[in-house]
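Figure 2 data, in text form.
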Amino acid sequence: MKFVGAIDQGTTSTRFVVVDRSGRIVGIDQREHAQIYPHPGWVEHDPQEIWRATEAVVAGGLAAAGATLGDLAAVGVTNQRETTVVWDRSTGAPLAPAIVWQDTRTDALVAELSASGGADRFRSRCGLPLATYFSGPKVRWLLDHDSRVRAEAEAGEAAFGTIDSWLLWNLTGSHLTDVTNASRTMLMGLDTLAWDPTLLDAIGVPASMLPEIRASVAVYGEGRGPLAGVPIAGDLGDQQAALFGQAGFEAGRAKNTYGTGCFLLLNTGTEPVASVNGLLTTVAYRFEGRPAVYALEGSVAIAGAAVQWLRDNLKVIASASEVEALAASVADNGGVYFVPAFSGLFAPYWRSDARGLITGLTRYAGAGHIARAALEATAYQTVDVIRAMEADSGVPMSTLFVDGGMVSNELLMQFQADVLGVPVARPVVTETTALGAAFAAGLAVGFFESLDEVRSLWAEGRRWEPHMDAAERERLLTGWHRAVERAL
């Protein structure tokens, strides 16, 4: 076998990559899917469209690599994590649109659940605060508001899963998930790595709807359809897959992924670390037959999605790639700050009632300043998360390892180093989410022999050193935090 593959099902698109033994991507195909906004604060996807895109990119990625199914030792899966799908076990048809992780329709339900015990009511059991972000309340909302979902759930015919489960169902015919995705539902016990009856009862989700929880690095079954006969091996939520792809196997190693949102994960080893600074305690990965490895995570809802908003809603750019040039057309932000709280604010604030704003506007401000403020917002939000992570872990950040679609933006990466005050390092292969799933699949079937071998495949591609003086850094961050206060 020459290669391993990975399905990377993200918030805005689906990719398939083909990876060789040196850890290089030799073939890739990508297809976007529709973002559906039926009401303010609601975000949906069509699960069938996502599956059709998956079928298409598998064929396209293999063609790009000049490979056949027979060349693949295994294929891994990685996915947007909290997005919630419910389907019929008999027909395999979705019972409702997928509710995306950014969706805030469960705000009233979350407030109701928080009324007794506060937002941290379940944190000691699942590592998560009560928030619209997570899957459990989304399932409960569907049960409460869709009579068909409720009826099929009561009959034992409704299957719930995050997007990995939906793909695994179509690829293997089995109802499965892994510990990293299960840890994002608010329904799994962080210590037991099993569905927690107390959480299921409190949130109101029937156990009959839930998939079987497996290790992240394991064989899930033999593929069918577009991957007929290929072992499906390895399943990781997208941010955990990025940590895996960045070779973040030691406690203390951290990475930040700049995609639709922004997600910083710090490996904390085989013991979960509770956060008192607004971060999440989550599962980083688990090998079959070994203890789980945990992580602290800081989640930012809107990063690259702010650039999409400039493109699709304001139409100040025709494509996302134009934002860097527009932002570079001005020397600084001109006093403009953009708080992209389209779905509230995630870590470290956890305020679903926050709303986006652009502040500091004068007649001097133009499209370049707004574009620059949108990019700078991603860097400011990252600083907020890193400061919280340093407080929780007691370990100062010495280098920020980065990946994701936005890291090709040189202006953003330099500003991130400047406003953070530490170097930013980008690997040679920036598609680390897909790479992590491919590594997991390869390790599960012996294509890669060990974590040491995978670690040896990581290589630094570019580094940005900070140049901003401390006074300017503090001035900019003070302006940002004033803008955040207004958004709250």
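Caption note: The longest strand covers residues 25-32.
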